[in-house]
Amino acid sequence: MAKLYFDGADSEYIYFGAPSWTGGGDEYTITIRKADGVISCTCLDAQCRRKNGWAYDDPGAILCKHARAVVAWVRRKLNED
Q1: For a tag site, which of 37, 54, 64, 67 has the least CB within 10 Å?
Q2: What is the rounded CA–CA span in Å between residue 26 and residue 57?
Q3: DSSP symbol at 21
């Protein structure tokens, strides 16, 4: 899995960060809105193609690779013994 890190939380959002996985030095912020579970990313793929959805398993969601990585991370954390 590419590098991904938990960056904190406040009363409204949970924040994750990820460097660009294709190089270039860009840094992206992935957020989960606590009120409804909507996940979004600041990468161009998510912004230009509106690849935002819900952090829970939604077969119809189209997410960028960074948001998919956060969903997989959360799923692993929830299933840890």
Answers
A1: 37
A2: 28
A3: T
- Pairing type for strands 53-54 and 27-33 reads unpaired
| Pairing label, strands 13-19, 5-9 | antiparallel
Q: How far apart are CA 37 and CA 3, in angstroms?
A: 22
**Model-level pTM?**
0.80
Residues of the chain with pLDDT under 70: 1-2, 51-60, 81
Q: Which of 12, 18, 11, 26 is nearest to 67 (CA)?
A: 18
| Side chain identity, residue 21 | W
**Spatial distance between the Cα atoms of 22 and 31, rounded to a whole number of angstroms:** 20
Amino acid 58: pLDDT:
63
